[in-house]
């Protein structure tokens, strides 16, 4: 074996050696760029140094994070048991000295160097004198380890060339280690941020953070707790603005699926074709404009929860497909025959009268029974008057911070006006009113005149306390018609149907009471 090594070294005359060194360094750069695990990469580097340049028994050591000890990361031609047992202290032996000083050390004859500890028992394998070279691996000014090799002693051979090559390899290893450390650090930061955001979402949407202590809301909290543990389909019902999405969040983040995605689809905002594609996805060329395949919300929500808002607006065809998902837990993308299985929990919400829709045959009866497994009814704000002040205080604090204003309290007349008002827009309307009031407040107090005109017509505002019966009736009529127009998006015909009267009468009243119905049309 020794003869083969000597022959190998004799073949490497100066010109050919430099070419071989360049080829070796290029090969090592390819190994380091391969992206494999660190130990495997470093082991391949040592194998290459041995096979291409005859640098034997290469060893790479790394300093522990607390700098308490130096251990072997990988070693060539050294048993795994031996390499795991070898440890050095800072300044101990040649390896410890190189890490301590940051300078390379060349030992021409290992047997004559007292600091050469030979803990890997190199001489026992060869039975010959060896030369030993050890260079530091550093990132900037920080020494993180060493790379060392040995050669059979040759008095005619200069070891400075080997040291130079080894220093270049050490630098390449340092860059690879640095890149890996940065990648690990970035991954840890992303994981920490992910955990922080999840905790923030859980704090924000857990049931105890839904504002309200009324008996009606306590019943809702109990239902959320009961249904969150399983995968039962939930139907959240209530008027617009009562917080149906908030309840859906609370169910998801209180369930075993809390680490999975929470995907929301507003069914009323999309037409039939777009809604089907949004829910189930589509293949390239399935319809005009489908320039590439796309996952649907059902696929994105796999392992988590899909929240279908305004489910009462589903078209008959989409109802059939949703029924299949609920029954068989599988579906096909638009334009595809490939069946996709899904593990998604469905939470639906609506402010529509589904029973009437079933009676009118605009909503499938079998689908109604599938989604109505566990209904949760959210009370309107007018049915939970005790919660109005709690909600108002919460929104005052929220928007005060957001607008960087010091609004400390709500005046008694303003509180009376809010309690007396019937809140057709529910919690969403209350939030908007408080946002406006905080914006207008200039003395740290929300007064009655900071609230919208619809609230200032209340008896509590003392604006109609001395009015005639006709004036009070007109104001009451105005409130009722305005509320209907808000619910019906400013449509006179829809408001008339909502109030059980004719469009002609509503048109007459709007003109008589000077109501600008166009302002209630949503953009």
Could you explain how this protein is built, in words?
The chain is of the alpha/beta class. It has 21 helices and 15 strands. A six-stranded antiparallel beta sheet has the order 3-2-1-6-5-4, with helices on both faces. A five-stranded parallel beta sheet has the order 8-9-12-7-13. A two-stranded antiparallel sheet has the order 10-11. Helix 2 packs parallel to helix 7 (160-205). The longest helix has 46 residues, at 160-205. 32% of the residues are buried. Mean pLDDT is 83; it is low at 1-12 and 458-466.
CATH architecture descriptor of the largest domain: 2-Layer Sandwich
Number of domains: 3
* Helix/strand class: alpha/beta
Strand order of the largest sheet: 3-2-1-6-5-4
CATH topology of the largest domain: Beta-Lactamase
Give me some keywords for this one.
523 residues; alpha/beta; Beta-Lactamase; Rossmann fold; Helicase, Ruva Protein, domain 3; 3 domains; 6-stranded antiparallel beta sheet; 5-stranded parallel beta sheet; 14% strand; elongated
Chart the SSEs and their pairings.
Elements lengths: L1 H10 L2 H19 L5 H16 L2 E8 L6 E6 L4 H6 L1 E2 L4 H9 L3 E3 L14 H5 L3 E10 L2 E11 L7 H46 L9 H14 L5 E4 L6 H10 L8 E5 L5 H9 L16 H4 L4 E5 L6 H13 L1 E3 L6 E3 L3 E6 L3 H6 L5 H7 L2 E4 L10 H16 L5 E2 L1 H9 L5 H15 L4 E2 L6 H4 L12 H19 L4 H8 L3 H10 L11
Parallel strand pairs: 7-12, 7-13, 8-9, 9-12, 14-15
Antiparallel strand pairs: 1-2, 1-6, 2-3, 4-5, 5-6, 10-11
Helix pairs in contact: 2-3, 2-7, 8-9, 12-14, 15-17, 19-20, 20-21
């Amino acid at each position: 074996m020794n003869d083969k090594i000597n022959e190998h070294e004799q073949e490497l005359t100066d010109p050919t050696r430099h070419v071989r060194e360049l080829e070796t360094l290029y090969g090592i750069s390819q190994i380091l760029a391969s992206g494999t695990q660190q130990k495997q990469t470093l082991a391949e580097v040592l194998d290459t140094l041995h096979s291409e340049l005859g640098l034997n028994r290469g060893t790479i050591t790394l300093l522990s994070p607390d700098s308490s000890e130096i251990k072997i990361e990988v070693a060539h031609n050294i048993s795994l048991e031996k390499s795991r047992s070898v440890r050095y202290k800072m300044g101990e032996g040649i390896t410890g000295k190189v890490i301590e000083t940051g300078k390379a050390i060349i030992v021409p004859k290992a047997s004559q160097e007292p600091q050469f500890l030979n803990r890997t028992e190199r001489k026992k394998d060869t039975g010959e004198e060896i030369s030993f070279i050890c260079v530091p691996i550093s990132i900037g000014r920080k020494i993180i380890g060493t790379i060392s090799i040995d050669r059979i002693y040759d008095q005619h051979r200069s070891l400075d060339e080997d040291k130079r090559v080894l220093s270049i390899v050490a630098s390449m290893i340092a860059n690879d280690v640095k890149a890996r450390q940065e990648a690990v650090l970035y991954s840890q930061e992303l994981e920490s941020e992910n955990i922080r955001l999840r905790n923030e979402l859980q704090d924000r949407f857990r049931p105890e953070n839904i504002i309200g202590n009324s008996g009606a809301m306590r019943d809702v909290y109990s239902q959320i707790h009961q249904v969150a543990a399983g995968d039962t389909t939930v139907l959240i019902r209530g008027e617009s603005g009562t917080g149906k999405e908030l309840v859906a969040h609370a169910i998801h983040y209180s369930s075993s699926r809390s680490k999975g995605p929470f995907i929301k689809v507003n069914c009323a905002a999309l037409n039939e074709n777009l809604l089907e594609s949004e829910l189930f996805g589509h293949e390239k060329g399935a319809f005009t404009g489908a320039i590439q395949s796309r996952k649907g919300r059902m696929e994105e929500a796999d392992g988590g929860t899909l929240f279908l808002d305004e489910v009462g607006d589903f078209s008959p065809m989409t109802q059939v497909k949703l029924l299949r998902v609920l029954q068989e837990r599988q579906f096909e993308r638009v334009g595809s025959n490939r069946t996709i299985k899904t593990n998604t929990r469905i939470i639906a919400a609506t402010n529509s009268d589904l029973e009437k829709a079933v009676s009118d045959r605009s909503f499938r009866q079998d689908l109604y029974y599938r989604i109505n497994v566990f209904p949760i009814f959210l009370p309107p704000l007018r049915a939970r008057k005790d919660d109005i002040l709690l909600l108002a205080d919460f929104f005052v604090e929220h928007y005060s911070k957001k607008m960087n204003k010091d609004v400390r309290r709500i005046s008694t007349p303003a509180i009376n006006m809010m309690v007396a008002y019937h809140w057709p827009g529910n919690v969403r309307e209350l939030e908007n009113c408080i946002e406006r009031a905080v914006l207008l407040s200039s003395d740290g107090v929300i007064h009655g005149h900071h609230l919208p005109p619809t609230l200032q017509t209340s008896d509590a505002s003392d604006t109609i306390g001395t009015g005639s019966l006709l004036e009070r009736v007109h104001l009451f009529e105005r409130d009722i018609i305005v509320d209907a127009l808000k619910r019906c998006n400013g449509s006179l015909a829809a408001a008339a149907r909502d109030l059980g009267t004719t469009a002609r009468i509503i048109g007459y009243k709007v003109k008589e009471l000077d109501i600008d119905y166009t302002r209630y049309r949503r953009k």
